[in-house]
Amino acid sequence: MRGRMALLLGLAMLPAGAIAMQVGLNAVNAREAAYEQELGRRALQSISVERGAIDEVREMVRVLATTPALQQIETGDCRAWLGDVVAQYPYVAALAVSDDERRVLCSVPAVERGYQSPITPLRERARVRDAFTIGLIQNGPLSGGVPILAAFEPVRDGQRRIGFVSASIRVDQLRNLLDRSRALHGARSAIVDGDGQLIAQSTPPTERNAVGLPTVDQIRNHLGPDPTFVEVENGSAVIVPLHAPDIYAVMSWAPERPTWQRWTALALSLAAPLAIWILAVAAGWFAIEVFVARPLSSLETAARGLARGEDVLDTPALRTAPEEIRSLRRTLAAMAKTLRGREQRLVEALSEERALLREVHHRVKNNLQMVASLLNIQARSARDESEAWGLARAHDRVQLLALVHQRIYASGEVRQLRIDELAAEIARQLIQSRGAATKDINLVMQLGEARAEVDRAVPMTFLIGEGVSMALDALANIGPVELRLFVQEGAGGEARFAIDADIDSERAGAPGPGARLIDAFARQLGASAGRDPERPFMLWVRVPPAQSAA
């Protein structure tokens, strides 16, 4: 019961615990969101130089592309002009004007007349997009074959594109800018293209547990118009668009707190509401244990004592129990007192009934013995032998009936009698009543314990008595003979009775006229009786229990 009540209490308070844990998780998420916002703000501050340089390059090529005189410029006529532009932007490595067939019309540094720039994926993307495009070229043709960050802006004559203005920044120049940002903000930074490939990065640190950069797959999966955050080795990173969807800046910082401190804060945020929920369940269980479970257990113990006939005691647990349970204990005590009084009256009534029943059996036995004595006197004074024999048999039967009542009276039993003991006494009494006619009969009894209901004892007594009488009539006055009597209880409470003698049928006399009585008593008991026509003094009977007979 205690376990089930604790479980139900825990389930009842589970929503409150879940809400408390959700509040803790929300607090952790809020701290993480604030931390990410701080990283985003710092990232935007850190890339301000790089963003400014790229914006200047874009604005420069846009202004050049929209200059009306650019379409009439012949090759070689604009070098000084482009040189002045490059001088204003020291981080620009090269500047060129080319037609739509990739022929360079004018460039700084200069190239030979008719030079055709190589096909690059970036220029093809700019041609297909027909808009400003910026990206990485591994071998810049105007920058000495070194990697550059190139920008292309289309030049139009009305609505028709006639070429491109391109500008480039050396990657090593970008690395210097990134190292400057890293020195200022303590971060590791990089510039990547729209495919997640690295364009430039700050000088990798030499420390053992230095913060890492996101992998190509991480970058590719988190590119977008807004800053996104990823976990990297030994820190966190933010990916910020410089010019989406072409180039992005990546900034990585070591965490402000060690990882174990962050996990500890998260664990505490979850453990605190969990501990509160456990304490609430424990407090509820303690209250149930003290005010409900223990008093009910004591009340159950008192009820067991009541079942054993003991008094209902007022234990300490019951004295401190709620008023409802104390009232139940008082009711139980009053009920126990009432039941004890009724039980005592029932015991007394049962004792009186038993005494009355024994007295009835005693008086019936005395009256039957008086009748038997009268029959015996009448038999002795009879003038005819057959009359004397009939009165003697009547005397035997009345004596057997008196014997049954005597057994009931003597044993005090009102439900069952021992049939084996009754059969032995019947046989001895019948042999004794025959006198000298049965002096040579040796009675051998093989008795096993067998019982029968009292209301079936009378017909069973007559059944056994008639069987023994028939055998004695057949074996009287023929010399020494052994009469065997078997009584035992079979399977299912079945009583078995048998009579046999060690003598052939030629020496035996005619049995008495008790066969019809045996059959009548057998039918009354639902028993089966068997005889041997060649040996009429033999008899075996199987008496089923009362339920089977019914």
Q: Could you characterize the architecture of this molecule?
A:
The structure is a single chain. By secondary structure, the chain is of the alpha+beta class. The chain has five domains: 2-44 and 259-299, no CATH class; 50-173, PAS domain (Beta-Lactamase); 186-253, Profilin-like; 322-414; 416-550, 2-Layer Sandwich (Heat Shock Protein 90). The chain is 53% helix and 20% strand. The chain is built from 14 helices and 17 strands. The chain has helices at 2-46, 48-65, 79-88, 121-129, 171-185, 216-221, 259-307, 316-319, 323-380, 385-411, 419-434, 457-475, 515-525, 546-549, and strands at residues 94-99, 104-108, 133-137, 148-157, 160-170, 188-193, 198-201, 228-232, 235-243, 247-253, 416-418, 441-447, 451-453, 481-489, 495-501, 528-532, 535-543. The strands form four sheets. Strands 2-1-5-4-3 form a five-stranded antiparallel β-sheet, with helices on both faces. Strand 6 (188-193) and strand 7 (198-201) form a beta hairpin. Helix 7 (259-307) packs parallel to helix 9 (323-380), helix 10 packs across helix 12 (457-475) and helix 11 runs parallel beside helix 12 (457-475). The two termini are 47 Å apart.
